[in-house]
Amino acid sequence: MKLSIAYSLLVLSLDAKLILAEFNFVNSDISTLLSNKQKLQAGDPEMVSAFRALMVRAQKALKTQTAPTKDIHDYVSLARYYWPDKRKRNGLPYVKKDGFPNPEVKKILDYKLLHDLISDTRDLGFAFFFTGHNKYATKAISNLESWFLDEQTKMNPNLNFASMVKGRRTGRRTGLLDMRTIGDLLDALPILQKSPDWEQQHTEGMQSWFTSYLDWLENTPFRSEEQGSLNNHGTYFDYQYISIALSLGRNDLVIATAQNATIRRIAAHITPQGIQPEEVKRPNSWGYSVFNIHGLCLLARSAKLASVDLWNYSTSDGRSIRTGLNYLIPFALGKAKWPYKDVPKNGTLNEFVEILEIARGAYTDPIYLNAYNLLHQKFPPKVNYNRLMVS
């Protein structure tokens, strides 16, 4: 892949400015990004393939409308596994049927729009980083303005009405999971800040919104139950909290959470054999086991940016992220039969490949690269340009 001199000068200028960014990376390491950009410029086949995948997503994101609804500022979503109570004439309040998603949740668009915003911001931000073309940043900044800065459309910095059950008036603590991937959006801010379209009001507005949201997250009654959960909800609470704290430069909060809550979580979530007890109880036990170990890997990657090593943490009896990951590999490869409800299948295997993509850069053990090589062609990760972000 041959790049022009003008392109090279443009992206090198952007690279130099990134060192002084006011927002911090959440998932990415700047040295890895710069190294991978050099590999891309040199025509590395893996990087070129990932770059092309990024461009497909970024071109789509340029055309996507992700603005929130204009008549409401509160984010609202419905509980996924709740259905009308057949014993009640009006069906209210809804009752839980674990493992059976109710299609009604799609009628309220906030969840989809939020997740489109998060993925589009990431795609557009990294397209700007790897190409230097400002059109990607322009679109991303416009989306951020609609969601977080414009007084007419911006979302209130809370999830008070997330995961609502019909027949009840407020959201639930499980709704905090809706913001679990916010780190993908925050990871783009250090890059977008270097666009000529980014102004001081954007910095101040984004810092203000996420500071307010972090304050809400720390003080909401939902926090104690959600952070105390011994399943994926607790994992993704930590990841969300650490992501925002990292972005805002609050490494003290990152370190305190990772060294206390997350370390206890690893010990509680994973047995010495690598089983995740709370996840294998679920009707879709494989999917949730993958989902939780994915969250723990994301946590480890982010905590490392604050010099906390969760990748290699282990209890005296061998409970660790590595143990949990190693337990799943034979089932993903089809070398063993999953002994619980559910089976490894498309979608969850694609997510597992994404985990392996992260793990291959975190561990020197070839088991992760070997498993990745065996699976990634048939089950490509959903975000198929992650190779640009990992070593």
TrEMBL record:
Recorded GO molecular functions are: lyase activity
Database matches in SUPFAM superfamilies: Chondroitin AC/alginate lyase
Q: Does the keyword Transport apply?
A: no
Tell me the keywords, alphabetical order.
Answer: Lyase, Signal
Coiled coil (UniProt feature): none
Q: Which Pfam families match?
A: Alginate_lyase
Q: Which organism is it from?
A: Basidiobolus meristosporus CBS 931.73
Q: By what name is this protein known?
A: Chondroitin AC/alginate lyase
